[in-house]
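Let's inspect a concrete specimen:
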Amino acid sequence: MQLAQMVDPEDITVLLIEDSRTDAAAITKAMIHGESFYNFNITRKESLEEGLDLLRSGIAVDAVLLDLNLPDAKGTKAINDVHDAFPELPIVVLSGYSDMDIIHQALHGGAQEFLIKGECSGATIRQSIYQAMVRKQIEQSYQRGDKL
């Protein structure tokens, strides 16, 4: 696989799993405003189970943007559940947690990126999603034995 064949979509569909309406509105606004090479289509679910149900339905999603403080999952449980069920999906954590142990657990548990709410711009979120998608494709190519 050539690097030029790596992630190059015009539209990126993101599943935002976030229970706070206020946070979800701010994240969505930040992501869709500003210059970007990509159009971000964002679908929001308020709980981990709702998000997993949507993914199980077969909807095409390019990446998951995941909070770690959900009504039905706290901490890295959400990452583990998404990663176990859909290991091919890139996961970007966007959470209020800033504890280094949780960040370490998240990144070793299947997340490609970890962002802290209130400390990143829309451009940072967009770039992190894109980078997570590229990293996930490289990881999958490596596992298949493809040459880059």
